[in-house]
Design brief:
Layout lengths: L29 H13 L1 H11 L1 H4 L5 H13 L10 H23 L22 E5 L6 H10 L3 E5 L3 H5 L5 E4 L6 E4 L9 H4 L3 E3 L2 H10 L6 E4 L6 H10 L4 E6 L2 H13 L5 E5 L15 E6 L9 H6 L8 H18 L7 E6 L8 H10 L4 E3 L21 E3 L1 H4 L4 E8 L8 H4 L30
Parallel strand pairs: 2-3, 6-7, 6-9, 7-8, 9-10
Antiparallel strand pairs: 1-4, 1-5, 3-4, 10-13, 11-13, 12-13
Helix pairs in contact: 1-4, 2-4, 2-5, 4-5, 9-10, 13-14
The structure holds S-adenosylmethionine.
Subcellular location: Nucleus, Nucleolus
Family: Belongs to the class I-like SAM-binding methyltransferase superfamily. RsmB/NOP family.
GO biological process, one term: rRNA base methylation
């Protein structure tokens, strides 16, 4: 979610990433293959028309129609065959001029100039495709200044700290910015693909949507704390929590899905996380009275959800319907049980509940019911007063929740609620326990100084 590319995760606005297509099954990156297939599917009608009018299948009897479509997508609409395509390259080269001419003719015929305008209206990605590529700097391994210098040396142009969403919207080409709110977040144009970038492969960068960076930041556990990440895989938020903890303290991370936990373990190793204990466990079965969790004051709950706010979904299935009533009910039931369960951990002070769903049933309704059941023990913390998109006013205080969307915040669709314990033990002063309403690492007056963390790698390490 809001993290790298792939089925149901993150986004790939613009052309799908370049692949070695020889043969397709040997593509090194399944996620990239998935992106390529989705984009090919989106342009299916256009590709059919071009292939037919260029007579490709008549001329190349051994070329199967589906493969032809993927190859022609890559040639005309994707990244071309720079270094890829293997044995198909000569075949495509023979037809290249004709295919290009047919695409141009189709555009003239339809009176459009951009490839995207050839799509049926329902297949156009709209605002979702304009969500920039957000890149979180992993402060366990490096710092923003080092990363900025690295990109500058690679020919990118650094435009400084953005002052508004308009600055982000205007990004083009090889320009990048620092996010106006989050100081460890770099912003590149939507089409930027950094999956092969050495800093990403070395774990110095995490490709994570801005909205998905907010839960850990708003939980804000100080170094040394004990934290539960209740539904943790594939682990982008866990790695963010570890960075905020500076690897000091403990994260107990749970997930039910063994495969996702395995990729999470790889991610945590790559990003230098050393304070996390992973467990393949149902969070609902984790006992709040277990002595191991007695010091847990912070919980991040980012449960399975319909994903209706995910940019990928909006790009893959523009105009796709909302999740069915039954599915929503089942998801909301689990989300509510998980939230109520989390609120029973005895030392809990602060909890962040987040989803990448736009549905009220999975968001405001879940939070309202959990608050009612907690009978005043927990309340919503008023966070980020300047954030423009707030929770739906379905109950008093719901405006303390945050929403996000491509239209309002130039991010994926997201929901966040921060709950804090209302009763303050008499021995602890209010000043010590009250929740910060700012984003800690977003202090605008940051002095330019070199970071102590390891310098950015000079050669691309491969994993
Ligand atoms: C939205 S994803 C979490 C994304 C993760 N927080 C991140 O930022 O990378 C939800 C996760 O909850 C897990 N999950 C679902 N039910 C669970 C349960 N009862 N206990 C623990 N994890 C569960 C799913 O396997 C899935 O990996």
């Amino acid at each position: 979610r809001g993290s790298g590319f792939g089925p149901g995760r993150g986004c790939w606005p613009g052309p799908a990433p370049r692949l070695s297509l020889c043969p397709l099954g040997r593509a090194q990156n399944v996620k990239q293959l998935y992106a390529l297939v989705c984009e090919t599917q989106r342009y299916s009608a256009v590709l059919d028309a071009v292939i037919a009018s260029a007579g490709l299948l008549r001329a190349e009897k051994k070329l199967r129609p589906h493969l032809a479509k993927v190859l022609v997508y890559e040639l005309l609409l994707g990244r071309g065959f720079r270094g890829g395509a293997g044995r198909w390259k000569p075949l495509l080269n023979r037809h290249q001029a004709r295919l290009k001419a047919e695409l141009a003719r189709l555009k003239v015929h339809r009176g459009v100039s951009r490839n995207e305008d050839l799509l049926e209206v329902g297949c156009r990605p709209g605002l979702a495709s304009q969500v920039p590529r957000f890149v979180r700097v992993n402060t366990l391994k490096t710092c923003s200044d080092n990363v900025i210098d690295y990109f500058k040396r690679q020919g990118f142009s650094y435009q400084g700290r953005a002052s508004s969403l308009e600055d982000l919207r205007a990004l083009k080409g090889k320009c990048f910015l620092l996010d106006p709110l989050l100081s460890e977040l770099l912003v590149f144009p939507a089409q930027t693909d950094l999956h092969d970038h050495p800093l990403y492969l070395a774990g110095h960068l995490i490709l994570q949507d801005k909205a998905s960076c907010l839960p850990a930041l708003l939980l804000d556990p100080p170094p040394g704390s004990h934290v539960i990440d209740a539904c943790a895989a594939p682990g982008n938020k866990t790695s963010h929590l570890a960075a905020l903890l500076k690897n000091q303290g403990k994260i107990f991370a749970f997930d039910l899905d063994a495969k996702r936990l395995a990729s999470m373990a790889t991610l945590l190793a790559r990003t230098g996380v050393s304070c996390c204990q992973l467990a393949e466990e149902d969070f609902l079965a984790v006992s709040p009275s277990d002595q191991r969790y007695r010091q847990v004051q912070y919980i991040l709950l980012d449960p399975s959800c319909s994903g209706s706010g995910m940019v990928t979904r909006q790009l893959e299935e523009p105009g796709a319907g909302a999740p069915s009533k039954e599915r929503l009910q089942a998801l909301a039931g689990f989300q509510q049980r998980a939230l109520c369960h989390a609120l029973t951990f005895p030392s809990l002070q602060r909890l962040v509940y987040s989803t990448c769903s736009l549905c009220q049933e999975e968001n405001e309704d879940v939070v309202r019911d959990a608050l009612q059941q907690s009978a005043g023990t927990f309340r919503l913390a008023p966070v980020l007063p300047s954030w423009p998109h707030r929770g739906l006013s379905t109950f008093p205080g719901a405006e303390h929740c945050l929403r996000a969307s491509p239209e309002t915040t130039l991010t994926g669709g997201f929901f966040i609620a921060v709950l804090e314990r209302a009763e303050v033990p008499s021995s602890v002063s209010q000043a010590e326990t009250s929740a910060p309403e700012h984003i800690p690492s977003a202090a605008p007056k940051r002095k330019k100084r070199r970071c102590k963390a390891a310098a950015a790698p000079s050669a691309p390490p491969r994993t």
